[in-house]
Design goal:
About 30% of the residues lie in helices and about 25% in strands. It has five helices and seven strands, in the order βαββαβαβαββα. It has a four-stranded antiparallel beta sheet with strand order 2-3-1-4, covered by helices on one side. A three-stranded antiparallel beta sheet has the order 5-7-6. A hairpin with a 5-residue loop joins strand 2 and strand 3.
Length: about 200
């Protein structure tokens, strides 16, 4: 198949190669790094020398500095291989330090923004809208809420459930509008509820 022409006006050639996992693919310049960001020091007296003792066994260092605030520090290796080994090894250790590739501030903000958006989408998928439960005007909202929580709990742990109500002008009583929202602790529970609840009779 490699080199075979594909029908069409431009007639490009199909390129077929052996699959390689990410760990075995050739690294590009943007993948290479020798600076490491460190935080979560065990105490307020943690020094640059303490930090050096942790990282120096992995290879020669250009610099090693704990910030004056002692909230974070940076370690710079002479080459990428030693930095990558330190990151891989210490990230899996139980020394309590947070270790990551050092990146520029604007890149760091972009990464945080992406993570926040992912988290927001995750939370959104765990929140479901529901309707169709019986409302006859005489039901107590609190009791109905407890009953619905018990019903939804069979799909997974319920984080929150809210019935939407409305109070007419001049009235002292809130009226149930026949719909509400339920939030689950896990995405799996929300998905199970979404696909199975519509088949049930409440």
């Amino acid at each position: 198949m490699d080199g075979k022409e594909i029908s069409g006006e431009v007639r490009p050639k199909l390129k077929v190669t052996m699959f390689a996992p990410v760990s075995e693919r050739r690294q590009t310049a943007k993948d290479l790094f020798n600076n490491i960001f460190v935080k979560n020091f065990p105490n307020n007296s943690y020094t640059s020398e303490d930090l050096r003792k942790v990282f120096e066994p992995f290879g020669p260092l250009i610099s090693c500095k704990v910030d004056d605030s002692q909230a974070f520090g940076f370690v710079c290796f002479e080459n990428h291989e030693h930095a990558a080994k330190a990151l891989e090894t210490l990230s899996e250790s139980e020394n309590g330090l947070y270790i990551a590739k050092a990146v520029k501030k604007d890149v760091r903000k972009k990464i945080l923004r992406i993570e926040m958006l992912k988290s927001m989408r995750q939370v959104a998928r765990q929140n479901l809208y529901f309707k169709g439960f019986p409302v006859d005007g005489s039901q107590n909202a609190e009791m109905l809420t407890d009953e619905l929580k018990q019903y939804f709990a069979k799909f997974g742990e319920v984080k929150n459930l809210k019935l939407i109500q409305r109070r007419e002008d001049g009235s002292t009583k809130e009226e149930l509008l026949g719909f509400g929202y339920v939030s689950f602790h896990t995405l799996e529970a929300a998905q199970k509820c979404r696909f199975e609840a519509s088949k049930d009779l409440f």
